[in-house]
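pasting input
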Amino acid sequence: EIVLTQSPATLSLSPGERATLSCRASENVNRYLAWYQQKPGQAPRLLIYDTSNRAAGIPARFSGSGSGTDFTLTISSLEPEDFAVYYCQQRHNSLTFGGGTKVEIK
Amino acid sequence: QLQLQESGPGLVKPSETLSLTCTVSGGSISGGTYYWGWIRQPPGKGLEWIGSIIYSGGSYYNPSLKSPVTISVDTSRNQFSLKLTSVTAADTAVYYCARDLLAGRPNWFDSWGQGSLVTVSS
């Protein structure tokens, strides 16, 4: 099973700041990586797929990069609605999710 | 707009079978070669993919799951279903149904149900 390790577990930032979230895979997943946002009591929402493609309706402040085993989700300037938990997911071999990064208000 | 809705018992006894159904509206489950999946989330924890199925019945499952799983599809009712047998307390979770973004093999989930909390307890 491909294990995805997300860091940090919690990111404390202020609105307007830049957020950088990391996802590391236990083996090469090529570019088959996605990012989701989840708010309390809600289903996850797909943000980014295939490393860097924004899903429909996702603002341009969200961007993804990386390849192989190291991936990054960047939120260029945090809006109040961006404080949430973020998960990465791979589809290179079966489907697995990372443990999540909580972005909280500082 | 595609909508998915989970339904089923909220409480299941240990060693019994957990059964959930996902009803799809706003689109046909047979409309294209998309996989339809089940994902679960234990309270306060992360996401775990259970398995996915296509309208023709072809399916993929998470090989790491401990409880035996069966996913089936009923195109006449525009539904797909999950059965998890011999459940334990570790199967307590919010269960989501979802549809893939891209056609082909299971991939990214871009349409989700609201989730259904299932508690395993005697």
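fyi The CA atoms of residues 88 and 104 of chain B lie 33 Å apart.
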